[in-house]
Amino acid sequence: MEISSSSSKTHFVLVHGLCHGAWCWYRVATSLRAAGHRVTALDMAACGAHPARVDEVASFEEYSRPLLDAVAAAAPETEEERLVLVGHSHGGLSLALAMERFPKKVAAAVFVAAAMPCAGKHMGVTTEEFMRGTAPEGLLMDCKMVAINNSQGAGVAIHLGPNFLAHKYYQQSPAEDLALAKMLVRPGNQFMDDQVMKDQGLLTNGNYGSVKKVYVIAKDDSSSTEEMQRWMVAMSPGTDVEEIAGSDHAVMSSRPKELCDILIKIANKYE
Questions:
Q1: Residue spans per domain, the chain
Q2: Phi then psi dihedrals of residue 108, to 5 deg
Q3: What is the pLDDT of residues 8-39, one digit of tens each?
């Protein structure tokens, strides 16, 4: 976890996607701090520099604990600190859980080419739709499934392959960012069979639905299509939409300036 302090009222909390870590935000975090904002980039459990192994994390709640703890520890809404949560890809589901638990501490939630569930449906519906629409096309390429066993029983994690990263994730990003990802990605668990993912009553209109949402569409994403991204927006009426042209799935690598500009605009709107 990386934390930087300033007197700004806006505190950005950045959450990575599947198999990634806080490291993937280095470009955006640097720009936000240079603009005078406070930034916390988190490692979810068994990701990035977090010490746990993937088979030691038994639930999605435990996986998301670093975010839940960070939001719980933040100052109340009435004080100086205002949280803007930013989630990429699978990280959007952790955002949703934190929004449901602590709606009054979050000024806005930004879903960057991310899984964005809706109130009244189980959180796993976004991943199910993604897999249903892309699996027949062989999207996962050289990704490997890794058998794991924890206190909840047998399961499977995914390890992103180098060809997948190059052609479906970072194809428009700098070569240095692709090289970094190949060195630092770890096996990730989607927790599809987790109770939190299957609970249709978990996300409520009164909590999750009350937090302002902004969806950032990566228009040239080869991993999650623009159609899929707009489908999630349509399920949550009232969500603001921003678009970034020429961005691959790793928006923070391929279009960091554009993403940073959008985040600062959101901060100014909701401070």
A1: 2-270
A2: -160, 155
A3: 569 999 999 999 999 999 999 999 999 999 99
Residues in the chain, overall count: 271
Tell me the three state secondary structure of residue 148: strand
Q: Which residues, 6 or more positions from 46, have their beta carbon under 8 angstroms from its beta carbon? A: 52, 53, 54, 56, 57, 63, 186, 188, 189
Q: Which residues contact 190 (CB under 8 A, 6 or more apart)?
A: 18, 90, 127, 158
- Strands lying side by side in the sheet with 2-4: 2-4, 38-42, 10-15, 82-88, 106-112, 213-218, 240-244
Question: Which residue numbers are catalytic?
Answer: 89, 221, 249
Largest CA distance in the chain: 50
The phi and psi torsions of 201 (rounded to 5 degrees) equal -100, 5
Residue with tokens 């999750």: 208
- Any alpha helices (H) in 40-140, and if so which ranges? 60-63, 65-73, 91-101, 125-134
pLDDT 10s digits, 101-112:
999 999 999 999
pTM: predicted TM-score of the whole model, two decimal places = 0.93
Report helix, strand and coil shares of the chain as percent, to nearest 5. 40, 20, 40
The Cα–Cα gap between 140 and 132 comes to 12
Architecture per CATH, domain 2-270, reads as 3-Layer(aba) Sandwich (3.40)
Point out which residues pair with 241 in neighbouring strands.
215
